[in-house]
Write a structure and sequence with these properties.
One of its GO terms (molecular function) is metal ion binding. Its cofactor is [2Fe-2S] cluster. This is Cytochrome bc1 complex Rieske iron-sulfur subunit. The protein is of the alpha+beta class and 148 residues long. 16% of the residues lie in helices and 28% in strands. The protein has a 4-stranded antiparallel beta sheet, with no helix packed on it. The chain has a 3-stranded antiparallel beta sheet with strand order 1-10-9, with no helix packed on it. Strand 6 and strand 7 form a beta hairpin. It is globular. Bound molecules: FE2/S2 (inorganic) cluster. FE2/S2 (inorganic) cluster binds next to loops.
Length: 148
């Protein structure tokens, strides 16, 4: 560490800044654990698609990733295709209590926490959620689905 760095160093060689950052990270991890426990989710991060390498900025997925009558999770967005060529996208956060949606199956977008399901157009199919998913604007450019 250079002499112009405004941090002190303990005899053990751990700077105060390093220690405080470490303590903050621990507190953050504890907070995250509490939040996950409160949510009730026992699932890991949702499986989903990733944009192809070299794709334009903002690309979420390709059209071939999204089946007609189904959908996929792409990062923090769920993309559906209710009818051929009709791509719709929504924030992948459940409107009930904020859990991350787990995927799309049998024609619904599913939340793992309390059983809410959403139609492919984002409207509620089954509660306890009572509000539709938040829309995300996307456009299709060639084979790429791009967030606008
Ligand atoms: S957070 Fe409760 S059903 Fe999704």
């Amino acid at each position: 560490m250079s002499s112009d760095t405004p941090t002190s160093t303990s005899p053990a060689g751990v700077s105060r800044r390093t220690f405080v950052a470490g303590a903050g990270a621990t507190a953050g991890a504890l907070t995250l654990g509490v939040a996950l426990s409160a949510c009730g989710s026992r699932e890991s991060a949702p499986a989903g698609v990733t944009p192809p390498s070299g794709a334009p900025a903002g690309t979420l997925a390709t059209v071939s990733d999204v089946p007609v009558g189904g959908g996929v999770i792409a990062g923090d967005v769920v993309i559906t295709q209710p009818r051929a060529g009709d791509y719709q996208a929504f924030n992948a956060t459940c409107t009930h209590a904020g859990c991350t949606l787990s995927g799309v199956s049998d024609g619904t977008i599913d939340c793992p926490c309390h059983g809410s399901k959403f139609h492919l157009d984002g409207t509620v199919a089954n509660g306890p959620a009572d509000r539709p998913l938040s829309k995300v604007s996307v456009r299709v450019d060639g084979s790429n689905i791009i967030r606008q």
